[in-house]
Structure formats: C-alpha cells, structure tokens
C-alpha cells in the first residue's frame, strides 16, 4: 500500500480524497493555485505545493508541474479527482512512465472511453445499445447543420472531450445548430483544450441513468447499481439519487451487465461510470463513459456501504476487489443536492465572492465512513470566510441524505436545506427546495426536460409557494416579540419610558415594486415558558416553541407540535430594520411594527429604481472576453453585444432592443462586477 499520495485537484473532491487517505494511514500532498492558497484542501493535507497562477490552464492543467510536485514530495501515487486531468490519457501515461501510480484507469482505457466519438464505436462493437448519430468530428457549422437535418431535429451538439455539461448544446432548428456548434466548439477548446465536436439524435423525454463500475487488475469488474441523474439544468446535474425511482430490476440488471461488458472490453481498472439515456419504455442507449470518480458518487456509497475512494486506492495498489457482484448491497435511498454559487432568481448566473457565512446543517454521516447511515452528509471544499473564485466551477458543497425510503430521503433533504446557511454569495438552495417539493418530483414522474418544462421562463419567488402561507408571517412576529421581550427585560430603563413587548403587531411583507402586504398579528406568550408563544394570523393559530438564540440565523423548534428548521436574520440589503425569513425555499422580507407604525408606513411614497434600460449590464462577476460593438454602431434586438467568461462557462449578452451604441464603458479583458455597465445606447 502507498504511504503518500498527491491529489491533483482542488475543492471538495480534494478534501474527499484526503479524508479516505487519512483513514487508511496514507499521507497526502495537496496542490494549489494562487487563488487557492488559503483553501480548505490545502489546510487538510499533510503537505501542500504551489503549482501556479489562478487560471486552471496555468496551474491545475499543467501535467509537468504536478508530476514534479509528486516527485519532490516523494508521493508514490496521484489521485486526479474529477475534472482537470482526471480523464487525460497522456497524463496517466506520463505518470506511469515516471514511476508514479495513477489512481484511476490505465491510459489505454481512458483513451478508448474518454473520447466520446471512439467510445461509441467501441460500445457498438461490445454489443452496447447506442444512440443514432454521426460520430465523426465536424469541422464547420454548415456541416453541423447539414448533419442535423439528416438525423432530424432535435439533435445534441457535443464536444468529444466534454463532460459536466460543458461543450454541449441542444438544437431544435438550423439556426440553433449553427450557433450551438460555434459556442460548443469555443467552450470545449477553453475547458478541455480539444475542440472536436460531433452530433447525435436527442432522445426526447429521456431519463439520464448511470451505472457505477469498479474494476481491478485481476479481471474483476462489478456494477454498483445505478444513479438517477435526470434532474438537470442546461445538461448539468442538479439532484442525483440512488436507486432510480423509474427502472425495474430487469432493466437495472441489463444495464449493469452491458456496462460491465464495455469495461471488460477495454480492460478497465478503477472506478468509472457508464451513462445511459433511458426511454419511457425502459429502452436504454449508451451515452458516454466517464473514466473517473463522479461528483455524485456519495449516493452510491450510502446505498452500498462502500467507500469508492478507498476501493480506487486499493485497486491502484494492485489489490483484488473485496466483494463479488452478489455481495453488492442496495439499502435505503440516497439523494444528493449540488449547492452551487449561482443566483436562481437571476437566471442562475454565477455568484462569486467571499462566504461571509457558511454554516451547513449538522452532519450525522461522514466521508470515508460507511457505518453511519440514515442521516445527513456534507462534502465541501470551503469554510466560513472562504472565497468562491471566478476561475473554477460554481460548486460550494454537496448535500447528501440517506433515508429508509425515497419519501424519507426527500423529507430529510428538505429539512437539511432549511438549515443550510450561506451568506455573501447567492446559492441555488431555494431552487433545490422548490424541486424537492414539486409533486412530479415527489412522485418520481420526471425526465431530463423536467426543469426546462416547469421553469421555462426562469425561476421566480412565486415558483416556491409555501404550503402554509401564514407560517413565515407568524415566525417573523414570534422572533420580533422575543427580541422585544429581551429589550424590555434590560435594567436601567426610566420609569414610564421602558420598552413594552406588546401583543399586537402588523407584519409588512416588503415588495420591490411597492405592493407591500400588511398582515395584523397577535402574539401571546405561554405563561412561565421561555422561548414560546401563541401567534394568531387571521384565523390560524401557531404554537411556536424554540430555544434558538436571537442571533442564530438557523433556528429550530416546533410549530403546533411539529419540528421545523428555518432561517431568520435581521437586516436586508434594502432595509436594516427588516427581518428576512426563509423556510422550504420561500423567503419574505418583513417589517414587524406596531399598528400605528403600519398606518404611517402606508403613507410613505415608493421610490422606483432608476431606469437602466439603455445600458447593457454585466449580470455576473466575470472576465469580459469580447466586446462585439463600437460607438456609433447600429445594433438590432437580439444581436450579440459582449461575451463574459465566468466559472468555465461562456455567457453571451444580447441587445434587448434596436439602438445605436453611444459608449463602450468596459474594455476587453477587464474583470467585471455584477451590474457593471458595459455598453450604453443613445
């Protein structure tokens, strides 16, 4: 067994590998870019080596530098994690040539399966069902349109070296095929250094289901059940679960056996995943093989009780797999939510910056420990006060729960999301909460088009209706009453001028457009019982009990005898006196005032925000990679104005209306802040 390994990655996956290595008594070496000098994975490792500037092409993608770091520290093996060099056949080959063990498949297996075009040809030869398409690299957008028309729309335009939703577009007509080819090729070149693109049929109403594999150097390959990954936005996974609520035991077995046959055909050794697109009749087709550990591997660990990182390390060290196919378990139900730094209310644009507050829910399951199940696990590479840089992907953490069945897992996940505190950057937690509450998700009735179909016009606050409309109002009044009680109890108040807690309030739910809602509320405390009150809103009464402190953001307690977790904090960006209350994805900003103050508040004029319609604003922090217009130029609505790069994604900004460019306010290559003006129209 190895005594020291280097992890050629960053973030949560680097922390994940370090945890298992520590359990196995193996010393670890972290690598870091300038942006990650203070990162969590650097602090966790036994040693750390700087490998370059912040951009990944100047650090984490430099094979020579990483191999040199392994040699200088005496690391006998390198674990690549996922992304970066994890599916780079040349890197694997270089490691072998340098006498360093690559903790992953052999380079010939990566070369065979990592290339999306060649892998489909090999899959067909191995008897695996394949999707109709043209698997040869396409050179021009005109040729892409021609092929797409021949296959029949819709089609998928896909980078050969792609993965994780990068370098992938779906086209429904000639225009989308032409433009999608260009964007896909540029994105693939920037993300993977390989701009080959191919086209295949897009199966409508598909499920995305993948089979987890593990193989050793002794010819043994097992499938570790499946993962359901159909809840996707723009082809990036949002929620994963295991097992799938859709496929039958017969389909599971058939998919698993085909995946094993494909792995054996390329002498596959290590963890890997074969992805399938599955039709509503449970017919399935090979999509691609990921020759690495997947982001969503924790859900498989929860239902099988296996540490996949440990198995990868043991296989790389030459050990045989410790179990047979018949011994692979499938216990309970696991769900993973990817918690990303993005603003769901601004079309999921990236949100970078400092984590002013990062407090995940309490963990009862832990990495590298498969003994403690039926609980909550958090995989993350950040910590309170850390930074979410613009140079890498948007993931903040992975939230994993394990339940006795699917409904139990959903309930656990909803409660865990309620207690996940993230401040300083926006996160997709409200969107995750909405998905988990959606009746079709709960019923298991969904496919890869679920988000596009149900949130076609983006995600809005009204897309998260609370099952009890008055609960957030009652909770705001409860917290305000507790605050008033504490103030009233302070000594030193002048007679006749002391603060009274009061019982009657008005909760003003604030609206950005000035249409505030005024709700009368009556609060009575339970005599002799601290941290409790009876709150009446309209005809509904809430008996709330909570021992959480007033300065806690995440508060726990019971309402009418039922446990709850919610988030309440003082001050909003627009009003320091307001309370922000969040529960089950729903949020209100509320002022809790006396009836007289509410009367006066109604008389206050509403100040409309300034008109910024003649400006093109940066919707996110990022790098202005292209400015496509100049002063005096006439521009039509829908015409490309600028391109911003952030978190490895290319984002094109379009003109909202016809006009003439007055000024270009930002220069190409400039780092932009959110809402920074780029172009002004006359």
Can you walk me through this structure?
- The structure is a single chain.
- The chain has 682 residues and is an alpha+beta fold.
- It has five domains: 4-103, 3-Layer(aba) Sandwich (Rossmann fold); 132-201, Dna Ligase, domain 1, CATH 3.30.1490.20; 207-463, D-amino Acid Aminotransferase, Chain A, domain 1, CATH 3.30.470.20; 471-489 and 499-602, Glycoprotein, Type 4 Pilin, CATH 3.30.700; 615-681, Beta Barrel (OB fold (Dihydrolipoamide Acetyltransferase, E2P)).
- The chain is built from 17 helices and 39 strands.
- The strands form nine sheets. It has an eight-stranded antiparallel sheet, sandwiched between helices. An eight-stranded antiparallel β-barrel has the order 24-25-26-27-28-29-30-31, surrounded by four helices. Strands 3-2-1-4-5 form a five-stranded parallel sheet.
- Helix 4 runs antiparallel to helix 5, helix 7 crosses helix 8 (174-192) and helix 12 packs antiparallel against helix 13.
- The longest helix has 19 residues, at 174-192.
- The radius of gyration is 27 Å and the shape is globular.
- The relative contact order is 0.08.
- The model has no long low-confidence stretch (mean pLDDT 92).
